Amino acid sequence: MQKINRNVVLALLSLTSLIFLLFQLCYYKFYLSQKNGAAFSKVRGSQSGQESTRWHVVRKFLGLISSHNIPVYLIDPLILRLVDKDIEQIRSSPDGPSPECKYFCTPRDFTTFALLDKTWKHEVGLFKTAEKMGFQWLKIINKDPRLDGMDDLSGMEIPLHYIFKLASHAIHLVVFYERSGNFLWHGPLRLKQHMDRKFVPFRKLHFGRYPGAYEKPELLLVSIDDLEVQIPKNPSSFLEEMSHSRFLECRYREARAFFQLYPDDASLDAVEFRKKAKSLLHLAALTLNNLGVKFWLSSGTCLGWYRQCNVIPYSKDVDLGIFIRDYKADIIPAFQNAGLPLKHKFGKVEDSLELSFQGEGDVKLDIFFFYEEDDYIWNGGTQAKSGKKFKYLFPKFTLCWTEFVELKVHVPCETLQYVEANYGLEWKVPVKTWDWKSSPFNVQDNGVWPIDEWDNVIQIY
Amino acid sequence: MDEWKPNPTVKPHKKRSWYLAWKYKLMNQRALRKLCQTGAVLFLLVTVIVNIKLILDTRRAAYEEEEESAQDYDDEMLNVEAPRHPVNNKKVLDVEVYSSRSKVYVAVDGTTVLEDEAREQGRGIHVIVLNQATGHVMAKRVFDTYSPHEDEAMVLFLNMVARGRILIFTIKDEGSFHLKETAKSVLKSLGSQVAPFLSWRDMWTFVGKKGGEVYGEKHAKSPALSTWGEPVLLKTEVHLTSVEDAECHWPDTELNRRRRRFCSKVEGYGSVCSCKDPTPIEFNPDPLKDNKVFDVPVAVIAGNRPNYLYRMLRSLLSAQGVNPQMITVFIDGYYEEPMDVVELFGLSGIQHTPISIKNARVSQHYKASLTATFNLFPDAKFAVVLEEDLDISVDFFSFLSQSIHLLEEDESLYCISAWNDQGYEHTAEDPSLLYRVETMPGLGWVLQKSLYKDELEPKWPTPEKLWDWDMWMRMPEQRKGRECIIPDISRSYHFGIVGLNMNGYFHEAYFKKHKFNTVPNVQLKNVESLRKDNYETEIHRLLGEAEVLDHSKNPCEDSFVPDTEGRVYVMFIRMEQEADFTTWTQLAKCLHIWDLDVRGNHKGLWRLFRKKNHFLVVGVPASPYSSKKPSSVTPIFMEPPAKEEGAVAVPAVAAAEQT
User: Fold this and answer.
1) Per the UniProt record, which residue ranges are transmembrane (chain B) (predicted)?
2) Binning pLDDT at 50, 70 and 90, where does residue B371 land?
3) What are the domain boundaries of chain B?
4) H or E stretch including A21?
């Protein structure tokens, strides 16, 4: 009797032990998967579960956003790339259930959406609801660059990024602001001292490493994976734009310091010249953008932007740079149609091409074409009377966007090297007498045009 | 524990023989067997306990982790909020108050919260309000009760202060000359024993709690008319209450959070901070149908007059068709209280480091504000420019919405303004009527971006030029013959009494009787006729139907205009050339309208109302409308009075003088 009892007790206890063991294992596994999610581990433990988490988080977020009437649009490069492949199909059948989760379930840590600042009122209610729905959120604020150029204005800091995190997925909401020059701008993502650096793996974000400039996109409402969402009408051009979107702010503080040293010329002549230069630049930008020719501020105009965030009043012309690979024969007729007659044309497409157009009231538009070599970039110059050729060398550079006289234009990202190559280390000191053949720091003699080519390479109108 | 598997059923079958042998052996060693069994039981129990503990532990760890990350976020929020409210746990405040002819000061716990020894200013009764829980200064005011009506302002202010606040009074120079009975009795009700007997050049200090105890009072009588009382210094202690007692218990909403923040910092805004039925801070006026100015940014130019700003924003946010998101308040200087007001209403505010002095400072502030406005709203073609001392009419945006297209389409226009310089109670009548005028009135106006960016901004007067921005804008180099559109009845009301170019006398003479539209949704009747050429047709039509008044009578007399209603009358005055305003100025003076410079003219024609009749004044022969003058009529000529009388027009200097 006793023996049986004991055995039974033993058996029972072992059973409970086993059950507990199993339970513990289960629990451990669950806990582990949760932790994995939080840390965005790459372990592909439960693929299907993770996939549907992403979809669910996106759905919840879209629900949250639409309940507060906030218009956001999808700018996630991973998803847009997928969407772009099927764009025809998606456009043609805007709704209808999709058989599988093709887009929102793809493996990734974030889904990125954009929000136009002016389309919502900074309601606190949104975040309360978000918290109730289980989202954790982070707001990144910083100075308003639109006030940066102003003498001593201090506005409130503006929100640049929001991150909403739920379970193993996070939504990155990028706030876009309208800037003078008719473009959209988003700020860089910079964490302040006391912020949680581990909130999400910030380095993996697609937006926020640099500020960016974009055209105002046309939007399209589509239904993908059974979710209604706005996307840029043309995802591929958006993705293309995104890869060259880096934006440089003008160095307003340095510009102010410059004007402290060398007070600005406020004479009527200077005001008039700036006005003309500005409208000439606007006209040139319009013309070249219509042709799809990429250009940047060069020489004196670039120096004006970099040093004083304005047109240098004594510079007498507007200088632009264009890569020779972007040259189009239409450029000359296009400018002529825009009311800017060709003043002179030096060089040829193969060598040292330079165009000059006559703007309104004595302001000249100079367009220099740049030739790329293996380790440097150069443009050419020609002296009309002697047929002498010059070569101006620059270190290699890429192009960034900036805002200049209410215009979104390109400047070399490596502006300092560019300006220093052209003007030397003393570029900060204004020089009013400038000789394009000898003053530039980077000028080199480049021989003489053969006489029989003169008719072609030296054209003056 | 995984290795130890005592349960026979779990074991595979082939090991049975081994098990039996083992069992047999154990049976022979009872003691050992018993021990083993007990050990097994114990071990199992331990397993269970360890298991349970493990589960609990992992659970707690998971919770803690969640809480931790939440806390990180909380910390951030706290860090932002905390520095503005240093907590003071002290229970008793030492208060020192000094009153004398040339200097007053108030120190709380050794910190000077008021010190005024400037010459020629700060005369009157200084009032300081402290928070009874924290001891923070919530309001600082000075009422020049030597001058008339300032005591009324003080009574108004004291009535607005919440019960329980600590009030500190001190007199600088003179504070009794226009301190009337009402004011004295209010001071008496606060517990002052001296106030009812305050007289010429007495010195006085008083500290008390509103609706509660008196902490101290000192007084020094002036021995004679020509001398001041001895300086007095009052030292006293004030007991602080708990924070809960000092705050109201409003329901916890977003709006009330803003209200609570505001009310714990500042005083003197009346019912917005009252515990029972506080006045709303969100107004939700009716939207406008087809609102053309919904996306037009509104720049409110402000200085350090927070009470004005409060009143102004209330009226602005109550106007139909207002879009709070487009409003930006630009504060000239790093003043906290105006910013508090802006935050109370949930608007955005920008502070501007002052550049230059006086009028040039205002002018630089305008430039920075306008530039910033067009930077912040790059899409905008216009901006509405308002000042902090204006009431905004309920149909302000409706008025602009109906007329703004003209600014874009008619190149001969300079601005649209809500203010009619000549629109006084007795000279303005028709809310649906608009005029074209050659002068720029300001005081609530619309500026076109192209005008600002292309013309004004590049040559805006630099800080060293001490110019008024509005005077500069009125100069012919800037205006270039363009005109502004104004309503007959103003859509703004200038209530500011304190200001750079403003004082009580000046305000009473030129602004108090200004007509202000209070009718909502006025349908403007002659918008299209305001275009350049149409307006000429309209004027010729008007002059054609107008009855010529009897030019033998005195135009200043009421009887000059017959006792009719709704008629159109015309009179002709002498005006030798375009800039000859001799007669007009005299006429303006006797009609009690704006006479300090010429306003409201259009090609030598002024339009106003007298006795509810439209009243046209044509300057002959300078005005092109002179041709309408019947040959029998001799234009009226009025001579300016002798020089001394003319000086009355500058009363500002007189009022600023010390006693």
Assistant:
1) none
2) very high
3) 92-245, 298-526, 531-628
4) helix A2-38
Nearest residue in chain A measured CA to CA from B457: A271
Tell whether the torsion through CA atoms of A204, A210, A211 and A217 is positive or negative: negative
What residues of chain B, 350 to 379, have a C-beta less than 8 Å from chain A?
350-353, 355, 368, 371-372, 374-379
A156 with A135, same domain: the answer is yes
* Coil/strand/helix, residue B424: strand
Q: Is residue A178 part of a domain?
A: yes
Q: Counting Cβ atoms within 10 Å, is residue A175 exposed (0-12), middle (13-18) or buried (19+)?
A: buried
* SS3 letters across A260-321: HHCCCCCCHHHHHHHHHHHHHHHHHHHHHHHHCCCCEECHHHHHHHHHHCCCCCCCCEEEEE
Domain match, A176 and A231 both: yes
What pLDDT sits at residue B215?
94
Q: Kindly state whether residues A339 and A413 are assigned to the same domain.
A: yes
Do both A158 and A305 map to the same domain?
A: no
- Token duo for residue B323: 């879009």
Same domain, A349 and A420: yes
Answer yes or no: are the C-beta atoms of A73 and A171 closer than 8 Å. no
CATH number of B298-526: 3.90.550.10
The total number of residues shown for chain A amounts to 461
Pair B408, B485: CB distance under 8 Å: no
Share of residues in chain A with pLDDT > 90 (%) = 52
CATH of the domain at A240: 3.30.460
Domain count, chain A: 2
Q: What is the pLDDT of residue A44?
A: 37
pLDDT tens for B295-309 read 999 999 999 889 899
Confidence of residue A167 (pLDDT cuts 50, 70, 90): confident
Residue A201 within any structural domain of the chain: yes
Q: Per this entry, what is the length of chain B?
A: 659
C-alpha distance from residue A408 to each of A181, A405, B516 (Å): 5, 9, 45
Q: Is A24 on the interface with B (CB under 8 A)?
A: yes
Q: Using CB atoms, which residue from B54, B349, B352 is nearest to A156?
A: B349
Catalytic residue (choose from B144, B202, B332, B389): B389
Query: What's the whole-number mean pLDDT along residues A40-46?
Result: 38
Q: Which domain holds residue A225?
A: 53-245
The pLDDT of A170-194, averaged and rounded, is 91
**Chain A contact for B37, CB < 8 A?**
yes
Q: Could you tell me the pLDDT band of residue B124, with boundaries at 50, 70 and 90? A: very high
pLDDT value at B6 more than 60: no
Cα–Cα nearest to B499, from B307, B367, B344, B299: B307
| Kind and range of the H or E run holding B61 | helix B30-81
The pLDDT tens digits of the residues spanning B607-642 come to: 999 999 999 999 999 999 999 999 999 999 998 887
For residue A183 the two structure tokens come to 């473009």
- Asked, for residue A25, whether it belongs to a domain, the answer is no
Beta strands in B362-468 (DSSP E): 382-387, 390-392, 413-417, 434-437, 445-448
User: What is the per-residue pLDDT across A116-150, written as a single tens digit (0 to 9) for each?
Assistant: 988 887 677 888 889 989 999 999 998 888 887 77
Residue of B nearest to A125 (CA): B254
Same domain, A290 and A436: yes
Set of chain A residues whose Cβ sits within 8 Å of the Cβ of B458 = 271, 274-275
In this predicted complex, what is the ipTM? 0.77
pLDDT digits (tens, 9 = 90+) for B477-519: 999 999 999 999 999 999 887 666 666 777 888 888 999 999 9
Tell me the residue type at B506: F
Same domain? For A234 and A292 the reply is no
* Cα–Cα nearest to B171, from B107, B137, B122: B122
Same domain for A310 and A218, yes or no, is no
pLDDT of residue B23: 66
Mean pLDDT of chain B: 85
